[in-house]
Specification:
The chain is α+β, with helices and mostly antiparallel strands. The protein has helices at 50-61, 69-74; strands spanning 18-19, 25-30, 34-39, 42-47. It is elongated. The relative contact order is 0.15.
């Protein structure tokens, strides 16, 4: 077998990604070095590293869903 690119099938180290405990946010590998941030099934951002992806998720997931008095009453 004649293979011109011997490193083509070598295993490349990669980061597996990140998912929050509630599953609303995820950072999945995108290309060779980037991470796509997904929130509730929607692609919302692309970051250059896993750390910046985690920082983005942490910053944007701190927004609390406030319920109004009417919504509390109807429950």
């Amino acid at each position: 077998m004649n293979v011109e690119n011997r490193t083509l099938l070598d295993v490349q180290p990669f980061h597996p990604g990140y998912v929050t405990k509630n599953g609303e946010w995820a950072a999945v590998p995108f290309g060779k070095t980037k991470f796509m941030i997904i929130h509730n099934g929607q692609q919302v951002h692309v970051s250059n590293s896993i750390q910046t992806a985690k920082d983005y998720i942490q910053k944007h997931s701190k927004v609390k869903n406030k319920t109004s008095n009417l919504e509390k009453f109807l429950k």
